[in-house]
Amino acid sequence: MKNQGRLIAGLVLTLIVAIFAVLNVNTVAIxxxxxxxxxxxxxxxxxxxxxxxxxxxLVSAGNRVSDQRDTKQAVEQQKSLTTQVATLKNQNEQLQxxxxxxxxxxxxxxxxxxxxxxxxxxxxxx
Length: 126
Known about the structure:
Number of strands: 2
Largest sheet: 2 strands, antiparallel
Domain Lipopolysaccharide assembly protein A: 24-85
Coiled coil: 78-112
Keywords: Cell membrane, Coiled coil, Membrane, Transmembrane, Transmembrane helix
InterPro entries: LapA_dom
Strand content: 5-15%
Transmembrane segments: 7-25, 37-59
Distance between the termini: 103 Å
Helix content: over 70%
Strand order of the largest sheet: 1-2
Number of helices: 2
Radius of gyration: 41 Å
């Protein structure tokens, strides 16, 4: 369906250009500075139109290449950051495990301290 719309638009534009060409067959002089030529007005308009289209395509191609390069750099940076996040999550898990082990050790030692203090008061050392 999309291509049919483009085909119809292309045919309509071609018809408009053909009508425009028939109406603008008068010869006009163009001075290039070093030469003066006499061409039909429609030919001059078509040449200028094609030059404008060529310039637009060249500018667009330059922007597209720049956008592709930027996209590639962003994808590489995303991969790098994803790897860093995974590494940091792994380190965080290891540190959390170590912290839990130390908390358990501290809890054991804090339970032993009151027992030791109670046993020292019952049997004083001389």
